[in-house]
Structures are given as C-alpha cells and as structure tokens.
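Please decode residue identities from the backbone states below.
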C-alpha cells in the first residue's frame, strides 16, 4: 500500500509501505480522510521514523469482523483501560501507554493503518468523512481545555492568540461554551479575516496585553504569544496553553508578578468526551465546514502540505482514495 513519510527538511515521500498487520485486538482501518495538523510541522521539518497523520477518519476493513465496514475516527492515545488514570476516564493521560497513533505507531497519511479496537470511535451517519476528523483535535482538544478552564472561569471576554486551525476551532468552541466577546491576534490577513467571519474582533498584541480577559487561549506555540497571554489575562482569569514547542521562554514582568491568574495546559481529550464533541460539531456545522478548505490524494499530498505549512490552508485533508 502507499503511505507518506517525512524524511526531513520539509519533504514528503510517498513510499510503498508494508500492509498493516493488525495485532491481537486490532483492526485495519482504510483511511477516508486524514486532516493536516500544525503539530505535524515539526516532524515534517526534522524527519519522522513512522508514517505520520493523527486526525484519521475511515472505515474498518477486516472482512469477517463484526464491525467490518463501520465508519470510525481514531482516538490516538493507545490507552490501557486499567491504570489509575484510565479507571477514572482520563484515557488521554494513561500511565501504562504513552504511544500515540501517528506519532509512535504508523498513522493516517496512508491508505490503511492498524488500530486497537478500543481506539475506534463510531461516526454517526449524519457526519460526513470530510468533517469527522474535526471531532478529534479541532473540537476535542479545544473543548477539553475549555472544560478545564470553566472550572475556574465561567464566561466573559476572551482572547485567542493565533488563528490557525486550533485557534479558529477555539473561537467557535469558546463562543458555544459561553465566552464572549472574543478578540483575536493573528498576523496573517487571510486567517484574521476568517476569524472575523466567525465573530471574533481582530486586535494587535499591544492592545491585547492589557490584563482584561477572563480567558486567553494561546494557540501558536510561540513565546511572543505566550508573553502576550501572560499580560492579557485579567485578575483570576485563565490562560489555556494549547500551542506546543520544545522550549518556553517568557519574561516575568512586574504586571505579571502582581497578578493572580490560572495557567492551564491540556493535552487531547478523554475518550468519554466524544459524544459531547459530536454535539459541538452539529451545533456549529457551517463554521466547521468552512474550515475544511482543501483536499488532495497521496500524489498531491506534498504540495498540499507545503501550502499548509505556508499558512495558505486552514484545515485541509489527505483523502488517499
Ligand atoms: Zn493534530
Ligand atoms: Zn491506562
């Protein structure tokens, strides 16, 4: 079967890979759509040892299996179901297995992949393949972080730093979960205009850094934005840190020192959130549909990924066919 690899330096190779060999308790999933993700940019630049792709929708492809042909999305943490975290439903924080589909084991930038049955989430008939991947990172990761934030801030004025796919998803999710008005800081005119079309008001980093927000969502993974987040958060407000990078370097200014605030970092989402995430997708269908702005098969995947890396696409899909 054909699969994509990231050999490094921003290149994509399409290789003839071995067919997935599902182990005990696993099935083969035929990929219908795998969404491109900003977190893939680092492996794309540096190289990665396995087939990446972690926002996978597809069909179970195991003739004879009771679920053969079922439409699914893939929950990427290969959780154990027995450890202390799994027992209380925090499957994304499993202590026994930290393996993630598309990171430590082969992912969805391919025609097929092997997936543990416990990681298969059923896709209802009303959700098309092209929207199903959004249930994972775009909605799932963001909504989980906001649910944590709501333990300390109920609603109010919000700021989103970065209007990439996670930031744009965050605008939709936080509006739906009771926050507003929403301001956004985004240097790309295209992305800022898209954020405005979702109801957010564009502002600059200087204007944002004035300590008046109940909730700040940092969705760039850049230190400059982390610094703005620390200045922008209001008294007893919360910063939700969703962006990722290898190192964080921020300066403790006097205004940050003389302030009470909550700083949250969250990773992915508990598997039990899935039903609630389906409802979030249905509630803001048109906004999510507009996020998915392109698709390509494996032949054109390298070109699509390069355009995505340049910020010219919001949430495009690999559709291996
Ligand atoms: Zn992702
Ligand atoms: Zn576990």
């Amino acid at each position: 079967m054909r699969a994509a690899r990231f050999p490094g330096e921003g290149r994509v190779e399409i290789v003839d890979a071995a067919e997935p060999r599902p182990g005990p308790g696993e099935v083969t999933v035929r990929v219908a759509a795998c969404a491109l993700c900003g977190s893939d940019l680092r492996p794309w630049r540096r190289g990665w040892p396995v087939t990446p792709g972690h926002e996978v929708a597809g069909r179970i492809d195991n003739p004879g299996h009771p679920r053969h042909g079922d439409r699914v999305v893939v929950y990427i943490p290969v959780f154990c179901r027995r450890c202390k975290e799994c027992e209380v439903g925090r499957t994304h924080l499993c202590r026994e297995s930290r393996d993630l589909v598309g990171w430590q084991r082969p992912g969805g930038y391919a025609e097929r992949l092997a997936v543990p049955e416990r990681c298969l989430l059923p896709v209802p008939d009303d959700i098309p393949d092209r929207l199903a991947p959004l249930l994972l990172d775009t909605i799932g990761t963001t909504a989980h972080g906001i649910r944590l934030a709501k333990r300390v801030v109920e609603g109010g004025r919000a700021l989103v730093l970065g209007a990439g796919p996670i930031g744009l998803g965050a605008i939709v999710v936080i509006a739906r979960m009771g926050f507003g008005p929403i301001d956004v800081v985004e240097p790309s005119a295209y992305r800022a205009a898209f954020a405005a079309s979702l109801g957010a008001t564009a502002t600059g980093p200087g204007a944002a850094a004035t300590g008046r927000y109940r909730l700040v969502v940092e969705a760039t993974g850049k230190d400059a934005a982390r610094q703005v987040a620390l200045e922008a958060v209001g008294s007893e407000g919360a910063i939700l840190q969703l962006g990722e990078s290898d190192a964080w370097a921020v300066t403790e200014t006097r205004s940050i020192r003389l302030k009470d605030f909550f700083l949250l970092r969250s990773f992915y989402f508990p598997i039990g959130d899935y039903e609630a995430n389906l409802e979030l997708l249905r509630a803001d269908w048109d906004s999510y549909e507009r996020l998915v702005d392109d698709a390509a098969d494996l032949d054109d995947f390298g070109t699509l990924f390069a355009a995505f890396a340049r910020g010219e696409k919001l949430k495009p899909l690999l559709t291996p066919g």
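Observation: The pocket of zinc ion (ligand 2) is lined by residues 79-80, 82-83, 85-86, 94-96 (CB under 6 Å).
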